[in-house]
Structure prediction request, 178 residues.
Amino acid sequence: MTAPAEAPADAAATGESSPRPIHVRPARPADLPALVPLLLRLKRLNEEFDPLLRVRDDAEGQAREVLAASLADPKAVVLAAEGVGPDRDRIVGLVHAIVRERPFYQPTREGVILDIYLLPLYRRHGVGEYLLKETSEALRARGAGVVIAEFPAQNEIASRFYAKRGFRPITARHARSL
Ligand SMILES: CC(C)(COP(=O)(O)OP(=O)(O)OC[C@H]1O[C@@H](n2cnc3c(N)ncnc32)[C@H](O)[C@@H]1OP(=O)(O)O)[C@@H](O)C(=O)NCCC(=O)NCCS
Prediction:
């Protein structure tokens, strides 16, 4: 895996052993100015994994639109993770998930985690696992019978994170430039 730009911060986070508690709550429209930069950080991280995921120039506006649409969609899940202590009331992570119909398969609805992002200092303290649990419950409450995570195939952090929690590949998307 090509080392992403965030790797040094990841390493710093790994060196800490104390738990870093957070407060998770449903996001609201007023959170958009804080959520958009986090979603962009995730998309820029994805870009480092694969040149076919090059971030568009208008990605910031797109991020705002996509999140605003999901915030208004009762079937979507947008969670904000707030820090504690000096980071109190500061949003340090987000989850963005939707519910999709499955016309051919059972269960008939899937909850899809499109985006999950935590600032590097908050990683590797079990926060991701907690976010996954909260998200899965929220998706189940919206009718999902299976939870699916979408992430770049080259993102080893995500592969390991999900594999450790019982996720396995079920479909693949293969691409080439035209
Ligand atoms: C994915 C993410 C939300 C997980 O949150 P987290 O709080 O670090 O996860 P947890 O502490 O609950 O679990 C840690 C596990 O995740 C995986 N992981 C986390 N950071 C990792 C890293 N830098 N390298 C490899 N695996 C990593 C490992 O399986 C790790 O378990 P381990 O510590 O026993 O090796 C967080 O790492 C993140 O925001 N990453 C960047 C964005 C991203 O890749 N999102 C997923 C694609 S949409």
